[in-house]
Amino acid sequence: MQTQHTTQTKTNQIYSESGKVIGSVNGGVFRKSIAFSRHALRRPPALAVDECALLQAREAGAVEIRIRDSESGKVYSCPIPLFKEHAFILDRGFGKQYALLLSWWTIRDGEGLTLQRPPVERVKVEQLAMGF
For the whole model, what pTM was predicted? Predict the structure, then answer.
């Protein structure tokens, strides 16, 4: 009789400063969902992530960020080293956040079809300390 072994990857929940679950890390990917029309920055066009969420995600082993728009089904993804290199700091009354222009995100539709890739640029391969 054979025993089947299944490997389950641990999921770590990510919390806002107020203690609300805002995402999770599983398999090296920090995932969260937003309503793009309410949460995306308009000027400049960008997506932002709370500083505390980024720190928790890195501690949980995240190497990539994926933000799903619950309205369109689009998924915005970015390796954390690229995010760190091009993000800018802002605080618009919701605590310290790091925002990345939409042009730096890989964007896929709900079917997984790539709609946009970031500009070609040398991305550091080695793991970078968060340093935020």
Answer: 0.82
